[in-house]
Specification:
Elements: E1 5-13, H1 20-29, E2 35-36, E3 49-50, H2 64-68, H3 72-88, E4 100-105, H4 111-124, H5 133-137, H6 141-150, E5 156-157, H7 165-178, E6 184-191, H8 196-204, E7 233-241, H9 242-247, E8 254-263, H10 276-289, E9 298-300, H11 307-321, E10 329-331, H12 334-337, H13 344-358, E11 360-361, E12 384-385, E13 390-397, E14 401-408
Parallel strand pairs: 4-5, 4-6, 9-10, 9-13
Antiparallel strand pairs: 1-7, 1-8, 2-3, 6-7, 8-14, 11-12, 13-14
Helix pairs in contact: 3-6, 7-13, 10-11
Protein name: 3-oxoacyl-[acyl-carrier-protein] synthase 2
Pathway: Lipid metabolism; fatty acid biosynthesis
GO molecular function, one term: 3-oxoacyl-[acyl-carrier-protein] synthase activity
Length: 412
């Protein structure tokens, strides 16, 4: 028998705010966290906009000495994890630390550490590189630092699947609890790649929007969309075995009931044109949850605002949902916070949970007129308020990685 898994804690660092209440208030107000890049000089860059985290002070959220041994992506993960841990009300003195684990991923780790280290090698020689360069840079250190800071000695790993990272981490943490490897898991994603190398690399791929207007640069499913806007931040959640959560009187936000993961086996950057891989991930999640497409009322789409993603994800939803595709409400949180890469799935899962909790589906901001081939209900023009029983979130990553997590309103 698979064990039931519930969500008991939420934590986020985002371009709309550095706590879940701040982030969710921004979402409900329809704010857009996109603005001119401040982290480096963009004079020679085609892309001028990003969705940066604002006013984040690491020493206010964690031990100062520990923070100095972390790059921003790890700091964001630790801050979000601490918020989620506190929100869940977990007291590790009452827990078996080997039954509490971490699966938090980053798509990239620290490009900034690579940049600064290479500059030191060029200007001062290889002997001047920071002795901590490698542990500062590598992407598993987000999970490692969270484990160290919170005393979690159970399963500790990170999934790296580019833009599907956060969702795969949550799905794999869900599995770890289902099959008895842990009772508590902190899961999600983190990223901080708004730097010269990151922006130049994605610009060279023609993946980023060159639209200079912050309000419309990220416009998923719009006929005039021209690429995604790079974002940063972290989204971490506490997943917990149901009986364990009930025994300690935890607040339960929602229940996780399905997870699907597939590969396109098609192209290194483009999703499969027929949407078959992403469709299968959605189908697998629904099969596990034992629900039909007509029961799923809301999809938080990957919705990057690139031509291929939005078109092929629409095809995937139609393939998975059939006639029910026209009835499901779809939106893209990336319209507000840009694309957080490895952190996207974590923050979007939090959006999913809050949407189910409050019966509020935010508007897809920036989108005015949808592409004629993107002909579903993308919550354009106004948010949708309705009771939600089942909802899913999709993430698609370079390399053909597809992940879907399905949740439901919690019932005894």
């Amino acid at each position: 028998m698979k064990r039931r898994v519930v969500v008991t804690g939420l934590g986020a660092i985002t371009p709309l705010g550095n706590t879940v209440p701040e982030f969710w208030a921004g979402v409900k107000e329809g704010k857009v966290g996109i603005a001119p890049i401040t982290k480096f000089d963009t004079t020679e860059y085609k892309v001028k906009l990003a969705a940066e985290v604002k006013d984040f002070v690491a020493k206010d959220r964690m031990d100062f000495k520990a923070a100095r041994r972390m790059e921003a992506f790890s700091q964001y993960a630790v801050a979000a994890a601490k918020e989620a841990f506190d929100d869940a009300g977990i007291d590790m003195e009452k827990e078996d630390s080997f039954r509490a684990g971490v699966i938090i991923g980053s798509g990239i780790g620290s490009l900034q550490q690579v940049e600064s280290s290479y500059e030191k090698i060029k200007t001062k020689g290889p002997g001047k590189v920071n002795p901590l360069m490698v542990p500062l840079m590598i992407c598993n250190m987000a999970a490692g630092n969270v484990s160290i800071q919170l005393g979690l000695r159970g399963k500790c790993s990170n999934v790296v699947t580019a833009c599907a990272t956060g969702t795969h981490c949550i799905g794999d943490a869900f599995r770890a609890i289902q099959y008895g490897d842990a009772d508590i898991m902190l899961a999600g994603g983190t990223e901080s790649a708004i730097c010269p190398t990151g922006v130049a690399g994605f610009t060279a791929l023609t993946a980023l929007s060159t639209n200079p207007d912050p309000a419309t640069a990220s416009r998923p499913f719009d006929k005039d969309r021209d690429g995604f806007v790079m974002g940063e931040g972290a989204g971490v959640v506490v997943l917990e075995e149901l009986e364990h959560a009930k025994a300690r009187g935890a607040k339960i936000y929602a229940e996780v009931v399905g997870y699907g993961a597939t590969g396109d086996a098609y192209h290194i950057t483009s999703p499969a044109e027929d949407g078959a891989g992403a469709a299968k991930a959605m189908e697998l999640a629904m099969e596990e949850a034992e629900v039909s497409p007509s029961q799923v009322e809301y999809i938080n789409a990957h919705g990057t605002s690139t031509h291929h993603n939005d078109l092929f994800e629409t095809r995937a939803i139609k393939k998975a949902f059939g006639d029910a595709a026209k009835d499901v409400v779809i939106n893209s949180t990336k319209s507000m916070i840009g694309h957080l890469l490895g952190a996207a799935g974590g923050v979007e899962f939090i959006t999913l949970v809050k949407s189910v909790e409050e019966g509020f589906i935010h508007q897809t901001m920036g989108t005015v007129e949808t592409d004629e081939d993107c002909d579903l209900n993308y919550a354009v023009g106004a948010p949708v308020e309705k009771e939600i029983h089942y909802a899913m979130t999709n993430s698609l990553g370079f390399g053909g990685h597809n992940a879907t997590v399905l949740i439901k309103k919690y019932e005894e």
